[in-house]
Each structure stands twice: as C-alpha cells, then as structure tokens.
C-alpha cells in the first residue's frame, strides 16, 4: 500500500503507535529451539527457526534474539555468499553464538559450544538461507529453483518484508541493517536498493533501514578480478618483471583476455601458474588435498571433496592439526543428522542431503557490477561498514578500496590503524557525504571471510560500528 506524501507522516505515526501497542502481546511465528544435540545443556540465548513463504519458495531462517536488549537493539539480516552457501556459515563460523568443538572431535555428531564474542551481543540477527535451494530453503515447484542475482535480491527483500510485517512485526521499529558477504555483495546491495526505493515511495509499513554491512563483497567484476593480479604482485606471489610485462601487454586490464591477445594471454598464464597452488581464501594457509580414503566415513570424505580443499592428514593426526576446511566438513555431519533436524524443526522430506554450499544451483549471473547502486545509495543518509581480510586473494582488499574511491566521498578520518587489546587489528578509513557515512576496515591476518579467521577482532569491529564508536 502506498500513500501520497501529504499524509505519509500521519500514517507513519499511526503505524508506530499501533506497533507499540501490538508488540507487547504478539507471539513469535517461529519455533523456539531451547536445546540442540551436541550442545551441553539448554542454549543460553533465544534461537527461533522457521520458514517464510515467498511465492513458490519456502525460505528457512535462524533468528537469534539479541543478548542485550532485543526490543532496542538493531535487527541485522544476514546471508552468505557462494552463491548457494547456507547462512549456517554465518551462524557457526563467523558471527553467531555457536561454534564447533573441532579440537576434540573424535567422530560421530560434532559438539558445539557457546561462543561469547558473537554479534548477537549487540543485535538481533536474522540468518536466512538464500537464494532458494540454499541450506534448508526449498521450492514447491521445479521451475522455482531457477534463480539469478536479481531474483535473489527480490526473494530476500520479499522474505524480509514478510518476516517483519507478518511474522515478527514487533521488530518493525528497530533499526534495520542488511548484512552479506562474498558473492552476496551483489544481490545484497540490490536488496538495499529495493528497501530504499519502497521507503521513498511511501510504502507502508516502512522498513526502518539504518545502514548495511558487507564483508569482502563482490561488487564489480572488472575491479574485483583485476585486483587479484595487483594483489598477487604486491604480496610477492609473482615477480616484478612478470607483473610489469603483463601490465604492459594487457594495458592494465586483465579480464576477458582471449588467445588473440597472445602476449597478454601468455603473461597471465604464467601468473596463474605462480598462484595455482596458493590457497585463495587465505594465502598463508595450506591448500589442502584429500589423502586419506576413509577417515571418518563417507559423509566426511564427500564433504571435503565438495569443498575442493580437503584434509591433508591421516585420521590419527586429529586433533593435533587440521586444515581450515575440516570445520566445514563437520557441518555436513551435523546438519544431516536426524536428531539435529528434529531440534531445528526442519520439514521432513524437503532437503535430503544438506550442503554447506550448494554448487548445483540453477543460477544465472545477470549482474556484473553494483557500483552504480552504491553511487545512488551514497546520496542517502546510511551508515555503512565495508571490510576485508588482508590475506584474501578471492576478493582482495585492493579491489574493495578501489571501488570505494570511485564513489568520490570525502575522507573524514584518514587511513590509520585500529586496535584490539592494544594490538593492531587492521587499518581503517572513514568517508562521508551528505549524511552517508562509510567506514572501511581491513582485518590483519584474516582471509575470506574475515570472521572465520579473526572472529574476536571482527566482533570488536562490529560492536564499535553498531554503537557509532570510531573503529
């Protein structure tokens, strides 16, 4: 429903009054999860799970109430990249209050424990498996599984609006932030545009959007991909001579190169040879390959193979040493366990084989750049946090800093270090333009996505940002 500008303010005031009266008595539509298999005792936070119907898609979510003041703290919508990676990534590995006990894993159902440096200390977090076909989200017709960048954005926006207006209206007055990482930087930015467009059109109820948070975000194909070459050179992965040769032969543009550009193509092939065995998600960590045939059964072996970076060790080596992807493997065992699914109230028969990242999505990449979206958003009074790990070759920090500069914002706090417990946690710079405030932060020593490697430092970053403190 859209009202004319003349009576919009009155309608908004009426909406606020009705919501305040209504929120005291309304019950959540999701199901409260008080305990989960593998966790000792009851959960020390409120976790709700449920589905929201969006056309022919059943979008699954985990909602965790703020551990601070749920009715006053912001609501953060969060979904993961891929595309096709479950929001479970965010919950268990990045910003949620749960973590796997990987050190003492000895087979069977993985154990989880309460992780204190969770973003739920300061915000209500709504994790959604998006697009449909991701995690526990499913479609009721085969054709509904066909998705794209633009379809994902519409799907997430419709999910959010329905969740806030029909399922949990008591949170409509809370400040709203949109959060996404990696490839979801594309669709996540479009989601924000949908919200601002409808708000500007006077849609009722109005979503109380305050800002957005993007981690290592895919933004512009040319900038992101070109930055991989520059980053590889700066980090010493390719020689000065090879870099300068490629820079000249390719005229500084390293995307969409064909064999017709013989010298450029040859130089880039030499560069790829230099970096092919580098772990792109964290250049200092080993690129693991599978060497042990059946360490903990078929499900763990398949999980590691599907993540391509497996586990280079024999079963006797756990828990003394494991690759980063070992933690991913545990999620397959956990989420496919019958007792876990019952605890989470997963609809029986909807998802037979849960995958951390569904690589078989019917997905169309129909947006190559959302830079113009950011330019338009920079004219609005939003609070924005963009961050990168400085050891990430998947979405290098160099490219992120480049596209931010294209926005032509005014620097209000120039490049400086930011600290956690007196130690340098990274570097930050703050921009502003007509009420739009963008903070960029690097996380020292972190990869892709940064929270997986520096979870406590990223918590401190979020805590300061959400409370409007300088990072």
TrEMBL record:
Signal peptide: 1-29
Entry keywords, A to Z: Signal
Coiled coil: none
GO molecular function terms attached to this record: acyltransferase activity, transferring groups other than amino-acyl groups; serine-type carboxypeptidase activity
InterPro entries for the chain: AB_hydrolase_fold, Peptidase_S10
Gene3D superfamilies: 3.40.50.12670, alpha/beta hydrolase
GO BP of this protein: proteolysis; secondary metabolic process
A Pfam family the protein falls into: Peptidase_S10
Family named by the database record: Belongs to the peptidase S10 family.
PANTHER family in the cross-refs: SERINE CARBOXYPEPTIDASE-LIKE 17, SERINE PROTEASE FAMILY S10 SERINE CARBOXYPEPTIDASE
Protein name (database record): Serine carboxypeptidase
Organism: Quercus lobata
